[in-house]
Amino acid sequence: MSKTVAQLLVRERTMLTPHHALITLFSDTMPVCSAGQFLNVLVPDSPRTFLRRPISIHDYAPDGTLRLLVHDVGDGTHRLCRLQPDDTLDCLLPLGRPFSMPATPGDVLLVGGGVGVAPLLFLGKELARSGCAVTFILGGKTEADILRREAFEQVGRVGLTTEDGSAGTRGFVTHHPAMCQPYDRIYTCGPKPMMQAVAKVAHQTGTPCEASLENMMACGLGACLCCVEKTTSGNRCACTDGPVFDTKELLW
After folding, report:
1. Is the domain of 91 the same as that of 111?
2. C-beta of residue 149 within 8 angstroms of C-beta of residue 124
3. Is 172 within the bounds of a domain?
4. What is the pLDDT of residues 84-117, one digit of tens each?
5. What is the reported pTM?
6. DSSP, res 223
7. Cβ partners under 8 Å of residue 129, min gap 6
8. Which pLDDT score is estimated for 1?
9. Alpha carbon distance 247, 121 (integer Å)
């Protein structure tokens, strides 16, 4: 799939929490993107940020609209969370291998934790359009960590887990009753221990499972090798061979 360097217009920036921003971008020449892919963003006016920042595609529409869910955790993401309408972002996209779609419609489970829920909204919409019955499990430490619940509820059934019990089931995503139901496929993104736990459940039931890794990525093109992941077929770059992998390939 061809990659494009594009100047994307900031249409809107909404702070969902003090540390999470929803950024809506637009271009009338926006390239076609698939769920699970990401873009590399050149952070504007940030002399301390030398490398582009990889950000998952949270939502996408063929009319040229693309949305990012950004967690303010450092200088680069802090600048991105302070963007204003009519600003522009220099972006390299689309990057990475996307999630795979089932050959036939079925029951699918999408499990995300924290800001790892970001690529799952776009994925859920693609799966729903293909005729799949979509169930989400969204996890966080507290209710404040559950991001864009209403948007997910417009796509499929939503189950919640929080470590403090402030919303949904108390505990981790694997403690939610929906994890015990049969599915044709499972997809997950979030902290590595969470994805490992989801993959373990999938393997025990023989359910195909894909995970979107959140390895440190610098170039996004497979040149710097800082995002290498050990797999059954050797070392592979998460930015080009992933970020989506069949969990059976991962040496976790």
Report:
1. no
2. no
3. yes
4. 999 999 999 999 999 999 999 999 999 999 999 9
5. 0.97
6. S
7. none
8. 58
9. 20
